[in-house]
Amino acid sequence: MAEKPAPKKPANDRQAMLEALAALSVDASSPDGAVSVSVNTDGVMTRLRVTEAVSRMSPAEIADAVMRTYQEAQQESAKRSAKLMAPIGNAGYITDRLRWRVGFTPSFQQAGETVTPESPISRRTPAVTENVVLKDRSEEPAGPAQSEPAESDDQYYEQGLRYRPSW
Asked: Comparing C-alpha atoms, which of 52, 18, 23 is closest to residue 38?
């Protein structure tokens, strides 16, 4: 006997889930209230607020408070996102990333560690490896090279499946 495919969820359930994920925002504050952050469903910080209490803190303490508060908000965001996505199952890349975010532990500064800011670099330094896949094109003019015609989409797809080690 052939198995029936699982019934599909109505489109409005999917749409409601997508809207809830888009609207998700998690706020967290440090225990002393000096730092608070907001993150979205992807765990991206969308707002950072600091109070006057940070004026009595060292730079390392401020950084620590920001990272710990961010970690708390990010983990709560991952838990809420997973709960919203539960109806579609718990297998796949997205849920694997949510599990990773729940277990994420950032690197914190050590007590007494001093941080010296790096000077801004106007252009990146080229990679120095034997098997460089990407060429440093920062000095070249923008846009396609004039000497070689651009490959059309049809030409690209006619060549079939390709594997490039850089992928």
From this structure: 23
Closest CA to 36 of 60, 61, 80, 72: 72
* Whole-number Å distance between alpha carbons of 161 and 67: 43
CA atoms of 39 and 60, how far apart (whole Å):
22
Beta strands in the chain (DSSP E): 25-29, 35-40, 45-50
Cβ atoms < 10 Å from Cβ of 101: 20
Query: Which pLDDT value is given to residue 1?
Result: 47
What's this model's pTM, rounded to 2 decimal places? 0.56
Classify 92 in phi/psi space as left (phi over 0), alpha (psi -120 to 50) or beta. Answer: left
Are 99 and 43 in contact by the 8 Å Cβ rule? The answer is no
Q: What is the pLDDT of residues 24-73, one digit of tens each?
A: 999 999 999 999 999 998 889 999 999 999 999 999 899 999 999 999 99
For residue 69, give both structure tokens.
């508060």
CB contact set of 41 (below 8 Å; sequence gap of 6+) = 21, 22, 24, 77, 80, 81
